[in-house]
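Human: Here is a favour to ask of a fellow structure person. Comparing notes only helps if you start from a blank page. I am asking you to supply a protein in sequence and structure-token form. Write it directly below this note and I will take it from there.

Assistant:
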Amino acid sequence: FVSNGAWLDGNSADGFRKCLEKEFSAVYLFNLRGNQRTSGELSRKEGGKIFGSGSRTPVSVILLVKNPEAKQEKAVIHYHDIGDYLSREEKLSIVKDFQSVGNPAMPWRIIQPNEQGDWINRRNDAFANFIPMGDKKDKSSKSFFESVYSRGLSTARDAWCYNSSYPTISNNINSFVDFYNNQREKFHQEKKAHSDLKVEDVIEFNSKKITWNRGLKKDLKQNQPIKFKESNLIIGMYRPFYKQHLYLARELNDMVYQIPKLFPAPELDNLVICVSGLGGNKDNTAIITDCIPDLNCLDAGTQCFPLYWYEKPQEKQLDLFSTASGSEHIRRDGISDFIFKRAKKQYGKSVTKEDIFYYVYGILHSPEYRTAFANDLKKMLPRLPLLDKVADFWAFSKAGRALADLHINYETVPPCDGVTVTGADSGFFRVEKMRFPKKDGMVRGTKKKVNDTGTIHFNSKITLSDIPKKAYQYVVNGKSAVEWIMERYQVKTDKKSG
């Protein structure tokens, strides 16, 4: 078979891989790579797309052999990876030269799957001995955070619910709501004469005016009016280092998950550590924010672990260890009592839950941790150690606190020493799209034009120069912080809605 190769390492395909082991006597697997759902260096390693513009996924060639006389219980798995940084033409040339899986020159290696069904990028056995960051399946489990953590906000209509301009998003939502209410009135007026009328028979599917989904159709059918509320306009983090105005309302947001418990009101402060979801294409990363993160802020569905979470008094009786915040909400700690007791016993009575929160953020940014457990972090939510030495705990906690300060307050951090800005005295600050200039360079021994990352053309008047290479070393969700800013801060019109 020639197929999409995502099953090779996909978290959801472990059962499928186990079935292949069980049902066949031999498997010959040629991994041609080419996964273009990655980004940055990882994307470059994946190389060219085997079917050109017709494929974005990795591609594999697999030969499955059933030998009724085979004596072994499980398949012998022969594996070959075509390699990094190869173009489409180079890959096809290699396939042509090998011709057959039976070619003696084929450099097969036998792989031994583990208990989890990993064939490649196997998990580190030590990871299982660490403490889970969170566990919703077993609420009594011993983890760093309580079970009240959440996925990021999913609006299912981002072009309407997010915008960098306050007047624009206000006008957009008002227009959306007016059109919905007109459609609602039209449906119920016509339904008086035709009782068996379906919503889809009446409403207008016009992406320039509205985005329908199941929830909105249900509200219309139940004759639920929607009103624009200015108080629902808040700030959200759409992508790393890219905040936008957000219209937060259950009737216009597809899935809010437990976000209302983390950010129930603008005046109630909170911090959340966001990590990548499970089974993503990019390396698992983390970022902290003080506002609502979008589901797709990080890869594979952002998971948000809070410093606090809030509940209304009627939901639970106030106890001695709760903090009343305002007249409507009670503040609870996101860090579990289990890990708090463990940390105090191990590191001293002066440890606070806030210290543990920042310790988590420090560990998640440890290069050694991220490298050693890269495969585990793609397949599971983080599990973290409590380091043996007291000094190590405090070093990571202080580093995590300092990182959090940088990542939350990045807009007020002093400019980098040595970077030159020219043209700012022009007073022209409009950005269509920021760009790197091109320069001559070498790519795998071939002369090519490459980006000069030491310079950024902010616009036709303003240029930033002498940007150090280390500015690109901090990567979150597949891109450096600098490149996130460059990608997101540009004039862009959504094709569907206009």
In short: Confidence is low (pLDDT under 50) at residues 320-326.
